[in-house]
User: Fold SET domain-containing protein from Arthrobotrys flagrans.
Amino acid sequence: MSPPVDLSPSAYLEDHPSVGRGVFASTIIPAGTEILSVADPLICIPDEAHLDTCCHYCMAEATDEASYVNQAYRPPVKLSYCLGCRVVKYCSKY
Assistant:
């Protein structure tokens, strides 16, 4: 099942023999025009700068108790390295 996708009338989906499935322009599209909107992200991964501070699964940021002083209470998020690759980290939720 594919996620809901809203595609601009200025673009279309097509399977291309050399580059695979993609979104292609059917007219000239001005800069800043939204051409594709996806209700739920298809893929979401932390960039290299956030590998140590972000859960690779749910994107929760690592925190500690001290960072929640004078804020609405949210439990701290502790991240642990993936036992397989030792590169990405996961929170205790998953």
Remarks:
- Residues 68 and 74 are 7 Å apart (CA to CA).
